[in-house]
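B., you asked whether I could sanity-check this one before it goes into the benchmark set. Here's the sequence:
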Amino acid sequence: MDHIKNSPNLPGSEPPVVMMLPEPNDINSFSPWEIDFRQIEAGPMETKVTVRAGSILTLLNISMSRAVHQTGVSPKGLLTFGIIRRNEVQVWQGQDTSASELLSFGSSDPFDGVSATRFCGTTVSIREHDIEHLADALGLNIPESLRTSATPAIYVHHKRLAAIRQLSEQLTDGHDQPMTENVQEEIVANLLLVANSYDQHEDKSTPLIRSRTVSKTTELMLALLGENVPISKICKEVGVSWRTLDRSFLEKFGIGPKKYYHRLRLNRVRSDLIHKANHYNISDIANRWGFWHLGQFAQDYHNMFGELPSTTMRISGE
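And here's what the prediction gave me:
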């Protein structure tokens, strides 16, 4: 299993870039987008843009205080998707999309839409080569609805959309959430799962296959607890698709494989804090189990155990 080990998955050091634009079309001066925003609602316009680029994808969050008609062409060489809330975009490519939460821009495709007052949305742009490579590693399809703006709105309300939106907002709101390769992969994988949807592409695995999948995966996770290996590499090693792996873990534990792996590593940290508090500091113990961003680690630890790592260490040392 040495061939799938990683070096520490350190977060990028670049924080989000936040800009207040005098007028929305100023976005064309620093981004690969070709956009023409036309304000169609009277009143003062405020436009805020936040950009955060990672090794796999780029997030661009834009908020505007007035309704606009927007036309343009999506960036070449990228597949781009829009994460929105219901009723924030009224019309997209000539269709009523007020009930949609996921839009497709395609690659180098024209688009035309009308957004509502106080619009706020995030685009996720991924290089075509990267999304194809990741889809292959996860055993997922890239449906045509993601490759073109001809099918502009994907009408599927999936709990994963809320997770994608929350994670994207955390990444663009500040530097506390590290933009690691694992986090970026999670966004792309969830987008693929949403677009495919379980109803359209049913998992064909048997209960026996799913049981064996869980056993093989948990064994692998135990062997690689300090590595924080991406789930795509675990899928490849175990020989199953993300869909089968996800279903297997949800059936047995009620949580997905990524969350299980994360919580397993947090458990190991807590054990060390309780039993080795006098010999190591918190950062050393966190690093040992693959946690390199201490701010995010402390938050995750508190969410899991209801106390900070320092509290656990202090109580164990008394």
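One thing to flag: Residues 84 and 317 are 48 Å apart (CA to CA). Otherwise nothing jumped out at me.
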